[in-house]
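for the recovery benchmark. tokens below, seq after
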């Protein structure tokens, strides 16, 4: 039988499959998330995220060296402060957990790019991403409902904390609170303090997602009341995601971030088509936990499932991926 088109010709052996492969993963595609806490020589495992742990600063420095050796170019930091309060002040103190961690990483792994997640949910006692409207508080606005996350007062705090992180040596600030105007406010605050070259990676389209559940255990940041639906994007809204993207570009975002990754491949694809900025996707804690849970039950092979998810995220249009699998991938690639 004569068949002109036989796509299987190009699948015959590993060499030809490699030759025609359109998307590949390499260590340089990844950003590795780290959770930092106070104390000495503590590695506190995170139950819902196998192999992930909260680290104290001394161990963090060793970890940073290892990440650099694996060829992963960047880390993103999340802090667990010693004390939480109404405005999350640890986040803008020069000796807060994140500025201290940044200085330690820069001292041991100077080539590693340090991205600091810029949000207040880990630092406030109520677990929301900024200042909450409450009677008696200096920013109280009786025209807004009690419990509402105050947008503009929080922008001031984001600016202050970004400057504190930049002064400690952060290369990139990554605002993740989905507040209106956050990118512009941070850009002005950084520029006013001379940090014109500190980049902003904006969590531009961040859905109000259940897939952040394990992270909130890891970062000790679940909201004390309500949820984040008044500020994070409704997962049902594809057009609104593009509106958020456009606003962040206007305000000066250098890199755009979409999250969670696998549930938002269409948004990643839309964004890749609609703009020319570098695009990041965050394979979040719940995506990581799901794959591990299925693998633990023997229902999926971990390595295959992780690599297939990550290649799909890259194929959809992400230039870089924040992933808890980053070190595993670098090891898998190194050892075949
Ligand atoms: C906010 C922040 C969150 C994550 C990253 N930055 C949590 C949230 O919005 O509740 C989630 C990351 C993950 O699930 O891996 N600081």
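predicted aa per position
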């Amino acid at each position: 039988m004569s068949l002109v088109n036989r796509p299987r010709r190009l699948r015959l052996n590993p060499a030809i499959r490699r030759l025609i492969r359109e998307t590949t993963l390499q260590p340089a595609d990844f950003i590795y998330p780290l959770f930092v806490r106070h104390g000495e020589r503590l590695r506190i495992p995170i139950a819902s995220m196998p192999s992930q742990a909260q680290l104290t600063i001394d161990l963090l420095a060793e970890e940073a060296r290892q990440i650099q050796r694996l060829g992963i170019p960047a880390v993103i930091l999340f802090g667990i402060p010693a004390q939480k309060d109404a405005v999350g002040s640890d986040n803008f103190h020069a000796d807060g957990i994140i500025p201290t961690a940044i200085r330690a990483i820069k001292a041991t792994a100077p080539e590693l790019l340090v991205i600091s997640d810029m949000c207040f949910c880990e630092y406030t006692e109520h677990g929301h991403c900024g200042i909450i409207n409450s009677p008696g508080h200096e920013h109280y606005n009786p025209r807004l409902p009690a419990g509402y996350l105050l947008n503009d007062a929080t922008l001031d705090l984001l600016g202050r904390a970004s400057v504190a992180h930049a002064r400690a040596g952060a290369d990139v600030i990554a605002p993740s609170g989905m507040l209106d105007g956050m990118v512009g406010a941070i850009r002005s605050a950084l520029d006013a303090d001379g940090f014109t070259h500190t980049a902003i990676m904006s969590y531009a389209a961040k859905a109000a997602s259940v897939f952040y559940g394990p992270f909130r255990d890891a970062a000790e940041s679940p909201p004390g009341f309500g949820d984040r639906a008044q500020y994070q994007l409704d997962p049902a809204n594809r057009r609104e995601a593009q509106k958020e993207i456009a606003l962040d570009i206007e305000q000066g975002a250098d890199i755009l971030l979409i999250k969670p990754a696998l549930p938002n491949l269409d948004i990643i694809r839309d964004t890749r088509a609609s703009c020319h900025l570098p695009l990041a996707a965050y394979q979040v804690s719940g995506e990581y936990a799901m794959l591990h849970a299925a693998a633990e039950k023997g229902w999926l092979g971990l390595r295959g499932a992780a690599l297939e998810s990550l290649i799909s995220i890259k194929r959809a249009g992400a230039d870089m991926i924040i992933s808890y699998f980053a070190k595993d991938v670098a090891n898998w690639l190194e050892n075949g």
